[in-house]
Amino acid sequence: MVQITGVESVTDQNFAAEVLKSELPVLVDFTADWCPPCRMIAPVLAEVAREEAGRLRIVQLDVDKNPETQAAYGVLSMPTLMVFQGGRPVRSMVGARAKAKLLRELSDVL
């Protein structure tokens, strides 16, 4: 998994505590080492994490090492970006995207 600066990793074990119980909305990047688009979106997520700190939390989940969470939310394609708010998923986006498009898609959550 490409580690993104300023973005924490979560696991099956701490997903509930880190994501579902978060006060802030959380964007979960479901990612994998073998996924080229995951590497493409990494710098975009790093920028958004830095710019939206305090309003949005961004975390990564390696689907190969955390199959329970991947299965629980029906994630089949990488990268899947899923926004959780108040303990439930409120938005799901599949595939790499430009920063401007991602921010537009997140505008109602921020």
Automatic annotation (TrEMBL):
Domain Thioredoxin: 1-110
UniProt name for this protein: Thioredoxin
Entries under Pfam families matching the protein: Thioredoxin
Highest taxon, organism lineage: Bacteria
Keyword Transferase set for record: no
Keyword Disulfide bond in record: yes
Family membership noted in the UniProt record: Belongs to the thioredoxin family.
Classification via InterPro entries: Thioredoxin (IPR005746), Thioredoxin-like_sf (IPR036249), Thioredoxin_CS (IPR017937), Thioredoxin_domain (IPR013766)
High-level lineage: Bacteria, Bacillati, Actinomycetota, Actinomycetes, Kitasatosporales
Keywords: Disulfide bond, Electron transport, Redox-active center, Transport
